[in-house]
Known about the structure:
Layout: H1 3-9, H2 11-30, H3 35-56, E1 67-68, E2 73-74, H4 77-96, H5 98-102, H6 110-127, H7 131-149, H8 156-187, H9 192-201, H10 205-221, H11 231-237, H12 240-246, H13 249-263, H14 270-293, H15 298-319, H16 322-347, H17 366-369, H18 371-385, H19 392-405, H20 409-435, H21 448-461, H22 469-484
Antiparallel strand pairs: 1-2
Helix pairs in contact: 2-3, 2-6, 3-4, 3-6, 4-6, 4-12, 4-13, 4-16, 4-22, 6-7, 6-13, 7-8, 8-9, 8-10, 8-11, 10-13, 11-12, 11-15, 12-16, 13-16, 14-15, 14-20, 15-16, 15-19, 15-20, 16-18, 16-19, 16-21, 16-22, 18-20, 18-21, 19-20
Main location: membrane
Domain NADH:quinone oxidoreductase/Mrp antiporter transmembrane: 128-422
Pfam family, one: Proton_antipo_M
Amino acid sequence: MSYATSFYLTGAEIGLSLAALALLLVAAWTGTKSARIVTILSVAALVGAAIFSMGLFDRAAGEVAGRAYGDLYRADAFGSFAKILIYLAAAAILVITPRFFTQRASYRAEYPVLMLFNAVGMGMMVSATDLMTLYIGLEMSSLSSYVLASFLKEDSRSSEAGLKYFVLGALASGIILYGVSLVYGFTGSTNYEGIRASFDAGFSTGALFGVVFVLAGLAFKVSAVPFHMWTPDVYEGAPTPVTAFFATAPKVAAMAMLLRMAMGPFGGEVDSWRQIVIFAALASIVVGALGAIGQQNLKRLLAYSSINNVGFILIGLAAATPAGVAASLTYLAIYVAMVLGSFTALLMLRDPAGNNLETFTDISGLSTKRPALAWALLALMFSLAGIPPLFGFWGKFVVFQAAVQADLVALAAIGIAASVIGAFYYLKFIKVMFFDEPLREIEAESPASHWAVLAICVAIISPLGYLLTLPLGDWTAQAAASFVAAM
């Protein structure tokens, strides 16, 4: 394959890299006064990358025409679907970010540039078909994430969050790298197809240790139990727009990377890792639900909600079928809309002095102060709880359906029972907003950009979202088949 074809297939990453480098120079020359225009141009670059990825979506078979740089990278429907979610989520975060930092006089043009570099790394992660490509993309995404978590230099909570994320993230990266070295040592290849062929010929105990180490490191990246310990502290301490970013785009990238790894190079040894995934899924659902019950900080609660939702996504992976992968992707798409809407609403909660409100006490009686915002939050919380007819119910339905079709009836039954626990803290939102007396003054107005993002998210998770079930089902099935068949 010619380099011209490879450059074309990686056009989204190349375009974002060039845009980030150019905007970095602009930021260096002009300082903070260019932050607004750099943000606008970054949003345009991300939307352009998403449109380009849509154009590549039909390369579903993942054959030679979709392989780049000697099969280090594959442009298939699976990668394109994940990148569309990543780029659009990152663009939406940039739209709602500036107001938060401007209030603190700490918004800098480097912020959107870091988001672009992060997006480049995430794009490489989801399309990698070689362990070296995967690791480079993972580190590129992680390094910018550490800086974003500690972006508020004058806030000790932000600095603490960045340090914790850096230390534990470096540990997880080391675990992945050690697992990669074991896999390479026992297979003689870092290419996914080479690893799959070697495992099919013989799967030794040493290779099993390599698989376990790689999956354990990836479990940290998706904040699955028992590698979830960093999530509540980082989500609470990081600036709220950064927390919203961590809960959406990187979550999609890490989960897509885990799906491709498990079903690609490790797909022939499902029985060796399925029990690990089942444990992580059930433990994440239970720990996420129980951990959230006693929380008073809304960001910390949403961190446990994220852990809880990862468990449901892992049920689709445990099915280890194309239908299970498609169900996980469907849940991911719906999850991004729910979480993005929740954090947008959280950013709209401010007192008259412009300080962000983050506790249950702050939203007491919100329905009397900001009824539209309260009803939007009600819809989002009910959707996260999986209550019909909201679209969040469909996400849970398809993953449980995939588990039942894979003869994992017990897993589906336990998952359904455990999901009831999570309904408690989502309903707590409703009780506090609609039945408690107001205890805080709430800012009366919010920017149109925030309302636009919130309205789109609420429309997607409302019953109107069911209009997307057929096309979304087709897209995710095509995405799942694109790399499962290729392997």
